[in-house]
């Protein structure tokens, strides 16, 4: 049976980033995944009702886990609080994974929604801190495995270990 993987929509070439551009996956990885897996594109920030393009947002004084715990918030560069939209987007991603029986995601590193190892520190100065985004935190809490688009080897190893390729 082909494995199902949820992928950050921007990584599959959809122009849903805050500035209306797309990101991309490593070309070799993308062809490999397209051959071996069923890929589902979703953007948590769009799912949360935010427009594209939109003001850039960062998690202030914490990580995605802190946002879910109620001790940090997500704000745009113009100080608009968008925490509720980020949480709603995360919930919709979890619901989608459960409905489609998806247990693996590949999400864009450094995003306040999709980051899995590093995120920006909330000062809009380009500084990074260790931590994961809001959607990644909620997915992991629901036992869904999240890989960064920047850690391809770990993903391939995981797929092979699970005899899915
Ligand atoms: S929220 Fe995730 S999927 Fe959407 S644009 Fe940002 S990194 Fe890409």
Description:
- There is one protein chain.
- The protein is of the alpha/beta class and 165 residues long.
- The protein has one domain.
- The protein contains six helices and eight strands.
- The strands form three sheets. Strands 2-1-5-8 form a four-stranded parallel sheet, with helices on both faces. The chain has a two-stranded antiparallel ribbon with strand order 3-4.
- The longest helix is centred in the middle third of the chain and has 18 residues, at 83-100.
- The mean pLDDT is 95.
- Bound molecules: iron/sulfur cluster.
The strand line-up of the biggest sheet is 2-1-5-8
**Biggest beta sheet summary:** 4 strands, parallel
Poorly predicted regions are none
Overall pLDDT: 95
Morphology: globular
**What does the radius of gyration come to?**
15 Å
Question: Which hetero compounds are present in the coordinates?
Answer: iron/sulfur cluster
Beta-strand content: 15-25%
Helical fraction equals 25-40%
Class inferred from helices and paired strands: alpha/beta
Give the termini distance in whole angstroms. Answer: 10 Å
Helix-strand topology string: EHEHEHEHEEEHEH
Number of strands: 8
The total of helices stands at 6
The number of domains is: 1
């Amino acid at each position: 049976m082909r494995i199902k993987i949820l992928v950050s929509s921007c990584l599959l070439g959809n122009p849903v980033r805050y500035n209306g551009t797309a990101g991309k996956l490593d070309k070799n990885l993308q062809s490999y995944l397209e051959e071996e897996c069923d890929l589902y594109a979703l953007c948590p920030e769009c799912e949360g009702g935010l427009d594209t393009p939109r003001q850039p947002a960062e998690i202030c004084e914490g990580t995605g886990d802190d946002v879910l715990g109620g001790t940090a918030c997500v704000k745009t560069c113009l100080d608009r609080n968008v925490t509720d939209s980020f949480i709603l987007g995360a919930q919709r991603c979890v619901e989608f994974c459960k409905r489609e029986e998806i247990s693996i995601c590949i999400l864009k590193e450094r995003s306040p929604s999709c980051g899995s190892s590093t995120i920006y520190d909330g000062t809009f100065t380009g500084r990074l801190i260790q931590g994961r985004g809001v959607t990644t935190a909620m997915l992991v809490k629901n036992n869904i495995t999240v890989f960064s688009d920047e850690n391809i080897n770990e993903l391939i190893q995981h797929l092979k270990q699970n005899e899915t390729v």
